[in-house]
Amino acid sequence: MTNSWIEPPNRMTLDATLPLLLRQLRLPCIGSHWQELEQQARVGGWDPAAYLYVLAEQELDKRHQARLARLLRDAQLPVNRTLSAFDWNAVTAARGTIESMAEDSRWLQRGENLLLFGPSGVGKTHLACGICHRLIEQGQQVRFFAATALVQQLQQAKRELSLSRALSRLDRHALLVIDDMGYVRRSEAETSVLFELISHRYERRSLLVTSNQAFSDWEQVFDNTAMSVAAVDRLVDNSTVVVIEGQSYRRRRSRHAVQPGSPRLDDHQPQSTDEPITAEAERSGDQPQKPHAHG
Q1: What's the burial of 10, exposed, middle or buried (CB within 10 Å: 0-12/13-18/19+)?
Q2: Residue at 13 is within a domain
């Protein structure tokens, strides 16, 4: 482009042609608002650069919001599970560690893992989703899977001789959530693909795993001791483990729903005799804990 004086288009040409140019440049927000904002700029006596600045700012914000909506849609998170909606008073958990990892995504860049352990109903899935929401707000790509659904998908890929390609496709997600690991059936067909996924992402891409079974019980997940030890070793290395203790949210909600005079839920259910999930469960505080792998 030369420095010679450029004659501006007349108003008729401007009104007819500018929307087409903006469409070709893929600037839909500017295309929708330039006329409205032009009137505001004229009334306010804006400098032309100020007018251009506001248009560009609106376009950038619109693209940012669209990207966040796309990331949230692709993550396939269960609805209405955010950290702000979590009842921290109902459980014992390392809140500081969880909120720190939710606000600072640098652990994803290092390919670190986060493991949430605790009995059924204490909010492991809720916390995992809450962390994912915060990470998405930072522009991170995450993907939520129920463990059984993920295993079935990988098994199908293996039968079609495309497991390697399926694992590579998952690499586009900086964080992969595997929810309820303990519900995977102990069979070679299921656990072998799960082990391959863990090995594939080791030190490269991050995993967030929830489980109601301690590492010492993972032989119930993997069909042989050697595979269990190897899987635990890869998950624990360079990871943060958070143990959550408390009473099942569903049980507490059922108790609150009981009408006066009705039998209490506890009258018909034995008291929990669950042992601590790990030795770390006996300790409190917000420091990350790294348990030893058990065979």
Answers
A1: exposed
A2: no
Q: Are 181 and 209 in contact, with CB atoms under 8 Å apart?
A: yes
Same structural domain, 23 and 83: no
Tell the burial category of 105 from Cβ atoms under 10 Å away from its Cβ (0-12, 13-18, 19+).
buried
Q: Per-residue confidence of the chain (295 residues) as pLDDT tens digits?
A: 556 788 888 888 888 898 898 999 999 999 898 989 999 999 999 999 999 999 999 999 999 999 999 999 999 999 989 999 999 988 888 999 999 999 999 999 999 999 999 998 899 999 999 999 999 999 999 999 999 899 999 999 999 999 999 999 999 999 999 999 877 776 767 778 988 999 999 999 999 999 988 777 776 667 667 777 888 888 888 899 999 998 876 666 665 555 555 444 344 343 333 333 333 333 334 444 444 443 3
Q: Which amino acid is at 31?
A: G
Statement to judge: residues 171 and 194 lie in one domain = yes
Which residue bears the tokens 């070709």?
24
Residue 100 within a domain:
yes
- Which domain covers residue 69, as residue numbers? 18-74
**Predicted model pTM:** 0.74
On the CB side of 110, CA atoms within 13 Å amount to 12
Are 237 and 136 contained in the same domain? yes
- DSSP state, residue 289: B
Residue 12 lies in a domain: no
